[in-house]
Fold these 4 entries.
Entry 1:
Amino acid sequence: MANTNVNRVKTSDLELKDRLVAIQRVTKVSKGGRHFSFAAIVVVGDENGVVGYGLGKANEVTTAISKGIEDAKKNLVKVPVLNGTIPHEQESKFGGARVFMKPAAPGTGVKAGGAMRAVFESVGIKNVLAKSKGSSNPHNLVKATVTALTEMRDAYTVAGLRGVTMSEVFNG
């Protein structure tokens, strides 16, 4: 179930850090020979609950990365982070990539693979246990991880949606 009320964030008041997840050299074969270009997927975040990802394509590596950063800044979302971890277990899927994540105790660290690790570090999650299943395509892993994080809801959000107090959420 997709979360339709995704919290979009404005970039003007944020100090964003970027992380390069993957870079690919792609080849177009034409009558005149091979033409090489590059595709870069980049994750940006303020390490305080805001994250976004972007894809940049260009003939040069540096240009592809900068285009990816600009694209990522256009797709920022707010994610609930509680005490350096996630509020609850979550599964998500994008294409052939499936991700599973659950909260971890303080001091555990980020137990996750490459593409998922970049997303967690960009959003500011310090302790999490995560597993990727199915496809290891970094594009789909990043998209599945961000989707899972945007579907998360903390107790304050649940209380607000139900129109009850925090104690009623936990005590029934």
Entry 2:
Amino acid sequence: MHIEPPFGRLITAMVTPFDKDGAIDWDGVAKLAQHLVATGHDAIAVNGTTGEAPTTKSSEKLEIIRVVKDAVPSHIKVLTGAGDNETAYTVEQAKRSQAAGADGLLIVTPYYNKPPQAGIEAHFRAVAAATDLPIMMYDIPGRTGVEIEQDTICRLAEVPNIVALKDAKGNPASTSWVIKRTGIPVYSGDDILNLILLSVGAVGFVSVCGHTVGNDLKAMLDAWFAGDAPRALEIHQKLLPVFTGTFRTQGAILTKAAMNMLGLPGGYTRLPLVDATEAQIAQLREDLRQGGVPVN
């Protein structure tokens, strides 16, 4: 089975740098986007969990899309999170995102209210009907409280502009069946499972660790799709300390700390997230070094 990746193979969910007072560092947004392009990315996802979307305003999200689009070459796709636990808001944000220039939408399962599968399906269909943009469904039950079940994914995969699935379910057996049944392009949404999901048919990654090890992730993808599984495994094992270390606490917190270590504009977090402690930064520095990231 050959499945084409609709947004390229390497995507990172980008952090949103804030200054100490909580304002967005717009120059930093552009610089981070350019850093991702320089480290092998095919696309950038903004306004996701790692971008602290729960604490940014709709107007800020739209400006982030514009700034990133202006900062990167035209062949780099810019996806944006537009999902919410209210379908009507999600539909309107999808329309606004399209008007702001987004190339695709990352739509998460409605969270907290735990809708039944019929409601989840109706939610995604409503968003798809409201926009011409290609949509990547985002299945992350650990955050939303409810999964998109296999049969629901299979029905939604028939919607013309639902073109991919970001899989952070942590259940490769279920993902295997989804790929076999639908052929939908699946992107790994959990860095430590990247290679495992490639082995069952995923087409690429929506990473967090791509901030620090984008070149390595690109090399893993290139090796895998060239048929060099031993090389892909070698890279996976090299990066295990980074995959583990980035998520010792919430991923945006430590990714921002890592960017600051590397002289890039990670900036600060917005409450209720809090910045990494000195002890967390020291541990992260060691994790990154063990994974081959050159930090001081």
Entry 3:
Amino acid sequence: MYDIEARHVIEALRSGISSRAVGQYFSEARPKIMKEISTRLDLVCEQGKSSGMVISGKYGEGKTHLLNTVFNIAHSNHMVVSYLSLSKETPMDKLYLVYQKLIQNTCLPKRQQPGFMFELEKLSAGSPVANEMLLYAAKQLETDKLYYLFRSYLNTEDADEKFLLQADLEGDFIANAPLKKIYRRIFNEPVKYNKNFTKTKNCGDYISFMSHLFTQLGYHGWVILVDETELMGRLSKKARLNAYRNMADFLLPDRCPEMTFSIFALSASYAEDVIEGKHEYENLEEVYPESQEPAKTVLDLLAKAPQLLPLTKEEMNEALYKIQDFHGKAYNWNPQLSAASLLGATQSGGYLLRTKIRSAIEFLDQLYQYGRAGSTAINELGEETLTEDVPQIEDF
């Protein structure tokens, strides 16, 4: 009987699409950067110190896999995790669109599917958490819109109003006029903003509000994972610079929301193709001659981001042994190959980690189906025989 979870892992590796399951079982590689990330997570959980970092790597070298590994580690630390990829629909220069995608892709610990609004639905007006959130919204944010909105949410009994207010908290922002109308109906008093809210300027209030909410609900922090960061390079000049300024609110400790840790995964070519190729430092001086921070600091972080190096031979062997084990469980057989034969099978897969893994799985597939792959064979006792020539996939 084959193992369903092992089959899922093998098929995910075969497709080249990283998954949380793969991240859970293949987490030992690149110990140096993982140690730094674990230290950052501990600082959030134990001392409440927020921070962020940028990692870079070539296509197919494991950036997404690393993010999925962090996803699992964060959940094991009882932290909330949000995972999103930048895209044309989610550009970093428009924080209100990023917030909407963040909320749609937020997972609570021990839950595989996104969603946390049920936690809000449990709150009642007058409860300690509700009172704390109202005080925070009234005193600690740039605008006080969320005070009026959250107080209305806690006290309305109208299902349509509840739905509208919850949609706003999820990033589908309602206009000021209907919010004022709802608040007046419930409390018979007018809304008096200390400052008018606009989603293009004040969306950071919502991110700060949610980070405080997660803390009050008893979670040990909020981890934000952003993939495909290099797509910022396709934005216009001014939009890119605005994107860097927005990134500062996730990366720089003095600007981060409370108890958060963010990672941005970036293509290794971004520094050459965009920062140097499009003269970003000169653009910054031109567009913001008097105030280049915090965008300049973010540019420095992007340019000097630690790069994921190819796995060492020992790390590759360890990963291949795990792949062999999962393949055996997935198809109910016992390969028992040597490290040399399985490592040799990856040589035809080019230099990318993703294609090397695919080659190893194809090698195992052929041994399982035909008992032979290249010059390697499994004899009747299930033992391996191997000639001195390293098997190559293109020879199959």
Entry 4:
Amino acid sequence: MSVTNDGVIWMNGELVERENAKISVLSHGLHYGTGVFEGIRCYKTSKGAAVFRLEEHIKRLLDSAKIMMMRQKYTVSELMTAVLETINANNLEECYIRPIITLGDGGLGIATTDAYPIDVIIAVWQWGAYLGDEALSKGIKVKTSSYTRFNVNSIPIRSKTCGNYVTSVLAKREANISGYDEALFLDTEGYVAEGTGENIFIIKDGILITTPLTSVLKGITRDTVLEIARDLNYTVKEQLFTRDDIYVADEAFFTGTAAEITPISMLDNRLLGTGSIGPITKKIQSAYFGVVNGNNRRYSKWLTVVK
């Protein structure tokens, strides 16, 4: 994924040319990862460009900032409006949206105070399938990472904090170098946690199972899939499971704003099911894209049209 210097970025209440959207090289967030962010998608629908679950994402962004003790002057409504303004200003029908709140240049050192300046930035760009179009239809190869996902008392799990993703970068690099598409984290007890930026579901005997909200981010796509699956009359369980459970699962898939619904075809050189997208995964994936593309009125509450 690459981002060009074309277009504009919303920064601290103003739309500025992307090349002029700058922060200090001494920003606290740059040095210590003290920022929080979201990943949001805007889809082309019959009613025009529409952002999927915008309010939920912005609420989670501000919750993350609260957990990180970063004071805020913007409301949910103001940031939602800013997202729509940024999409409009860039004339995009479909795009990925990255709001980020980060501590600015208030002095270096671990200690922070409420006096630190805070930068609030919203960028948008065109971005297709996170792991490639073929991944959505054929699935991806996954490797269990040598890195462990966080203990709930080692880092704020409910906050989508920038610094949290250092291990994701390392795990992803490790997997790619080894010939895999993605990595899978286990938690500190050895149970399956999540991917580098995705939640995970497995399917066994028609039942969907996903990791409970212990060592994982409270994913908005995860929540979407839970509701869709139940509406399709599937049994869904939130419970701990091991990588052995994935090895013998009928199907498995990742969920996330970037990854959407990406089937897992292989874990640690073991084929899952037929080694391609399974029938239940395909049905849920199809339902999901029907929702985000505005083709299912039942879930129209989740779409915010860009006007």
